[in-house]
Design goal:
CATH topology of the largest domain: D-Maltodextrin-Binding Protein, domain 2
Helix content: 25-40%
CATH superfamily of the largest domain: Periplasmic binding protein-like II
CATH architecture of the largest domain: 3-Layer(aba) Sandwich
Oligomer: single chain
Shape: globular
Number of domains: 2
CATH class of the largest domain: Alpha Beta
Strand content: 15-25%
Largest sheet: 10 strands, mixed
Structural class: alpha/beta
Order of helices and strands: HEHEHEHEEHEHEHEHHEEEHEHHE
Distance between the termini: 98 Å
Length: 307
């Protein structure tokens, strides 16, 4: 009797394993490059452009659903390395050490550049001076007091803007005095608009594509023109100055896909890098990695409209 019960238990186990395995395969087959569901973790400083891309992608491919989760850069990269996130949108590519870590796990990330973004420096509208030297900002980051800057305001200590400015100033930690941090770019914009003398550090995408509840706040701030370290001219974070590589606080944007198969992550990355996605980037105020083509119809004569 005991023998038969063991055999029965073994058969039941094999049956359940086969059913679970079949279910897993069926679940995978539900996702393709143009259908299924996907969670994308996004650097909070570039959330607006990704939300626009997702809205158009879902409107084009009705069977695709993408959920956007905004996090700081440090959290985002940590989730990616620990395989808690499979697809992320970042303001930097992977470091050599991070690539080696993926290689040990036999994972080859697909990295797709799709735009050039800018870090914008902002001040209250009540501040008449709309020019700032990058050297003054770097000096302030290095703890120097005679810079003419009252304070710097970041979204949060783990953000990509903090990492970028720390690398630029060649410091390991930001100063404890005169530096303020919140949780989002929205909070930075609000704080700067209400406090004279403060310089906010935000992703320019939040200014070029403000949410409806942010429009009034945007009207209360100035976007500062910045003089680079080896230049005497001030430049703004506009598409033109980004295209001519003149604005000194530019950075590239990437979508990193670690799904490991031809899923929705691959489809979304191809969409962003394709013609429609690049047109969305162009309209957003950022600089696309490739200029979308334009079709011109040339006529041999002018056709007058009928009156």
């Amino acid at each position: 009797m005991l023998k038969y019960s063991k055999v029965f238990g073994l058969v039941a186990f094999v049956f359940l394993f086969a059913m679970c395995n079949q279910k897993s395969k069926n679940d995978e087959s539900k996702e393709t490059i143009l259908k299924g569901s996907l969670d994308i973790t996004v650097d909070e400083t570039i959330k607006p452009i990704v939300e626009d891309q997702v809205a158009v992608f879902e409107g084009t491919y009705y069977d695709a659903k993408i959920a956007v989760k905004a996090k700081s850069e440090a959290e985002l990269i940590n989730d990616l390395l620990n395989q808690k996130a499979k697809v992320v949108v970042t303001t930097r590519t992977l470091s050599k050490e991070e690539e080696e870590r993926f290689a040990k796990s036999k994972i080859k990330p697909r990295i797709t550049p799709f735009a050039t973004d800018a870090i914008a420096l902002i001040s209250s509208k009540s501040n008449n001076d709309t020019l700032i030297a990058l050297k003054s900002v770097i000096d302030f980051m290095q703890g120097k007091t005679d810079t003419g800057i009252k304070g710097l305001v970041f979204d949060n200590p783990n953000s990509s803007t903090v990492r970028y400015m720390k690398e630029l100033a060649k410091v390991k930690e930001i100063p404890t005095n005169g530096v303020f941090s919140f949780k989002t770019n929205e909070e930075v914009i609000k704080f700067v608009s209400e406090n004279d003398g403060m310089i906010g550090v935000v992703g320019v995408n939040w200014l070029s594509q403000p949410a409806p509840n942010m429009i009034d706040l945007i009207k209360k701030i100035n976007v500062l023109s910045v003089k680079g370290l080896n230049d005497n001219t001030y430049y703004s974070p506009t598409q033109n100055d980004l295209a001519e590589v003149k604005y000194p606080l530019a950075r590239d944007l990437f979508i990193i896909n670690c799904q490991g198969y031809s899923g929705l992550g691959m489809g979304f990355a191809s969409f962003i890098a394709g013609d429609i996605g690049q047109r969305i980037v162009l309209k957003s105020g950022l600089l696309p990695v490739r200029t979308p083509g334009r079709k011109l119809k040339i006529r041999s004569q002018i056709i007058k409209d009928k009156e």
